[in-house]
Design brief:
This protein has about 240 residues and is an alpha/beta fold. The protein is built from six helices and ten strands. It has one domain (about 5-235): Nucleoside phosphorylase domain (Rossmann fold, 3-Layer(aba) Sandwich). It starts with a strand and ends with a helix. The structure holds S-adenosyl-L-homocysteine.
């Protein structure tokens, strides 16, 4: 099978522009899945774009599906997120050096918050080459103060209060942003030994105004993700 790069987005808005001009594929295998898949060429490479829906289980399902059916060389998760670090503002770009599931909590049995029993590490590391190239791609689109690298935290919660945000910071003081899919995609990718990267554009600051900010800024902050993906594909071609 030819090499391809998979891009997974949770919401239709996150994959709309990227999937334009690609072919929509009929469902393969277990057909009951609501998993739109688009395939085509982008700057000399085969790209497969998948819309997984919101949350860790949807994200995990889509990731395993795409690995089983398309054998991607890389998996990129592209989408929006709420800023957690005070330095991260709406419209900024966060590239995950690593990710963790902040809502995983079996501390009663002696684990730290986020630790998943049975795994050697519950912090999933991005592919360093993909991260470096994406940094380079991002530098052509945004000033350096709007690009951040660091820990991305994921959970099945829309973070929209100072209390929720503070709780995340108490357990994960290095967290840059919070979203609902990335670390699940990272866990499944890692389990299958497929390199991955999470890239997120900030739609809100995970505080009391997050619901309104999310609605207001969602469509404004997505295009930068697509521009960076285009530039990354051009770099990967060289
Ligand atoms: N409006 C959607 C639900 C969006 S949930 C619907 O009705 O179906 C928020 C989505 O954006 C998730 O995919 C998550 O990854 C991301 N996100 C953006 N801001 C977030 C925040 N503050 N907390 C958690 N996830 C956030």
């Amino acid at each position: 099978m030819e090499d391809c790069i998979a891009v997974i987005g949770a919401m239709d808005e996150e994959i709309a522009a990227l999937s334009e001009g690609l072919d929509r594929l009929p469902p393969k295998g277990s057909s009951g899945l609501d998993l739109p898949i688009f395939k085509g060429r982008l700057h000399g490479q085969t790209i497969v774009v998948v819309r997984c829906r919101v949350g860790k289980v949807h994200a995990a399902l889509a990731t395993q599906y795409v690995i089983d059916h398309f054998h991607p060389t890389f998996i990129i998760n592209s989408g929006v997120a709420g800023g957690i670090s005070p330095n991260v503002r709406i419209g900024d770009l966060v590239l995950g050096t690593s990710s963790v599931q902040h809502d995983f909590d079996v501390r009663y049995f002696g684990y730290t918050r986020g630790a998943i029993p049975g795994l050697e590490s519950s912090i999933f590391t991005a592919d360093p080459r993909l991260l470096g190239l994406t940094m380079q791609a991002a530098a052509s689109e945004l000033s350096s103060d709007r690009i951040h690298q660091g820990l991305i935290v994921s959970g099945d919660q829309f973070i929209s209060s100072q209390e929720q945000k503070q709780e995340i910071l108490n357990f994960f003081p290095d967290a840059m942003c919070a979203e609902m899919e990335g670390a699940a995609i990272a866990q499944v990718s890692s389990a299958n030994k497929v390199p991955h990267l999470i890239m997120r554009s900030i739609s809100d600051q995970a505080d009391n105004t997050a619901p309104q900010d999310f609605d207001q800024f969602l469509l404004d902050v997505i295009p930068v993700l697509n521009r960076v993906i285009h530039r990354l594909f051009i770099l990967l071609q060289d």
